[in-house]
C-alpha cells in the first residue's frame, strides 16, 4: 500500500515539477565593444582577431560564416532543435557579439525589451569567454 502511495506521489510531483521548472524568457544580453586583450599587449591585425574569433567559436561548437559587410555570423545549433545566430563585428581593438536571430528560443518582447530563453545568454557568454581565451594567446 505504501509503495502505491509513494508511486502516486512521485508521479504527481513529476507533473507539477515539469511546468514549475520551465524557464522564463530573460532580457537578451548583447556584448558591444569588447576590448581585444592579448597577452603580448600588442594590437593584433584584424585578420588575427578574426582567426581568434573563429577558433573560439569552433571550440564551443559554433559555426562561423563571413558576411558581405565584413562582419561574421556565428550560428549554434543545439540538439537539432534550438538555433541561435549572433552577428560579430570586429576590429584590431574591439569586437561585438549582438543577437541576430533564433529558432525555438522563445524570442519575444516584454515591456518593449527583447527577451529570450536564458540558455541563449549562457551560450553567448560561453562564446565570449572562448574568444577571450583565444585572443589572450596572441
Looking at this protein, list some descriptive labels.
TATA-Binding Protein; 3 helices; 5-stranded antiparallel β-sheet; 3-stranded antiparallel β-sheet; single chain; alpha+beta; 8 strands; 138 residues
Describe the structure.
By secondary structure, this protein is an alpha+beta fold. The chain has a single domain, classed as TATA-Binding Protein (2-Layer Sandwich). 38% of the residues lie in helices and 32% in strands. It is built from 3 helices and 8 strands, in the order αββαββββββα. It has helices spanning 2-20, 46-59, 118-136; strands spanning 26-27, 31-35, 63-66, 72-78, 82-90, 94-103, 108-110, 113-116. It has a 5-stranded antiparallel beta sheet, covered by helices on one side. The longest helix has 19 residues, at 2-20. The protein is elongated and about 65 Å long. Mean pLDDT is 89; it is low at 6-21.
Poorly predicted spans: 6-21
Percent helix range: 25-40%
Which whole number gives the mean pLDDT? Answer: 89
Radius of gyration: 20 Å
Estimate what percentage of residues fall within beta strands: 25-35%
Question: Major β-sheet, in short?
Answer: 5 strands, antiparallel
Secondary structure class reads alpha+beta
Summarize the structure.
With 138 residues, the protein is α+β, with helices and mostly antiparallel strands. The chain is 38% helix and 32% strand. The strands form two sheets. Strands 2-6-5-4-3 form a five-stranded antiparallel beta sheet, covered by helices on one side. A three-stranded antiparallel beta sheet has the order 1-8-7.
Amino acid at each position: 500500500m505504501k509503495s502505491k502511495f509513494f508511486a502516486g506521489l512521485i508521479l504527481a510531483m513529476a507533473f507539477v515539477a515539469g511546468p514549475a521548472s520551465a524557464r522564463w524568457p530573460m532580457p537578451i544580453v548583447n556584448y558591444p565593444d569588447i576590448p581585444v586583450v592579448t597577452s603580448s599587449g600588442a594590437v593584433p591585425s584584424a585578420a588575427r582577431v578574426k582567426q581568434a574569433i573563429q577558433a573560439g567559436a569552433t571550440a564551443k561548437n559554433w559555426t562561423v560564416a563571413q558576411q558581405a559587410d565584413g562582419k561574421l555570423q556565428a550560428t549554434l545549433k543545439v540538439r537539432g532543435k534550438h538555433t541561435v545566430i549572433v552577428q560579430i563585428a570586429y576590429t584590431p581593438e574591439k569586437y561585438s557579439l549582438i543577437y541576430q536571430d533564433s529558432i525555438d528560443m522563445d524570442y519575444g518582447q516584454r515591456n518593449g525589451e527583447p527577451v529570450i530563453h536564458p540558455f541563449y545568454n549562457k551560450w553567448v557568454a560561453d562564446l565570449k569567454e572562448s574568444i577571450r581565451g583565444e585572443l589572450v594567446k596572441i
